[in-house]
């Protein structure tokens, strides 16, 4: 049985929606991307077409599936609800100005892992479902991959990408990273002593970022 020692994760944030343009919190609400803004994805599409992906995964929400459909990468695809954005509960559709005087909201901004979202998703639930997805991906890769590197494309959400980078890059916190819509991060992982660790972090497309 072969082993997978290296893995490239291309973590792409979905194209922009009307709520994103209006700077409204958008979690599990199922909004479509703005079709007139799809041309912003062309540079990303060109770069991704040059890669050879083993598999693509997408959040089940429309904005992610529509982004992946536009990119039209020739690769097997799986849809997985565990790649959803955090559920913002009572804050769905609200803006910063509408929430800034809410004490619970300020507590969440100060410490998102300890603060709570009214009728929303706790940080533990959010992190556990994402961790569950990656535990399955790592396990499957170790069982089925030939020796060497595998590449996966993930179309997901800003909060998911922030969490994953903070999880694998200890020097970065959740709020340190900002990824624009239709842009992404390439996270290169290596398996060392039964653990996956980040060996490289770069922007997709264009400029390389240091760890």
UniProtKB/TrEMBL annotation:
The keyword Hydrolase applies. It comes from Neobacillus novalis. It comes from the Bacteria. GO terms for cellular component: cytosol. It is an enzyme of class 3 (hydrolase). This is Histidine phosphatase family protein. One of its GO terms (molecular function) is fructose-2,6-bisphosphate 2-phosphatase activity. Substrate binds at residues 13-20, 63. Its EC number is 3.1.3.-. The keyword Hydrolase applies.
């Amino acid at each position: 049985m072969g082993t997978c020692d290296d893995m490239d994760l291309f973590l792409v944030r979905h194209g922009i929606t009307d709520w994103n343009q209006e700077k409204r919190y958008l979690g599990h609400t199922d909004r479509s991307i703005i079709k007139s803004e799809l041309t912003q994805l062309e540079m990303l599409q060109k770069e991704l077409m040059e890669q050879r992906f083993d598999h693509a995964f997408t959040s089940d929400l429309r904005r992610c599936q529509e982004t992946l459909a536009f990119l039209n990468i020739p690769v097997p695809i799986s849809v997985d609800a565990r790649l959803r954005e955090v559920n913002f509960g009572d804050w769905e559709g609200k803006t910063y100005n509408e929430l800034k005087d809410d004490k619970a909201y300020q507590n969440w901004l100060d410490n998102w892992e300890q603060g709570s979202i009214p009728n929303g998703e706790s940080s533990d639930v959010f992190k556990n479902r994402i961790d569950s997805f990656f535990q399955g991906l790592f396990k499957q890769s170790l069982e089925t991959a030939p020796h060497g590197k595998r590449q996966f494309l993930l179309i997901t959400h800003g909060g998911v990408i922030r969490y994953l980078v903070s999880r694998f890059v200890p020097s970065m916190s959740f709020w340190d990273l900002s990824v624009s819509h239709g842009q992404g991060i390439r996270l290169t992982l290596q398996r060392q002593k039964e653990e996956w660790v980040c060996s490289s972090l770069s922007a997709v497309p264009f400029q390389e970022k240091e760890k």
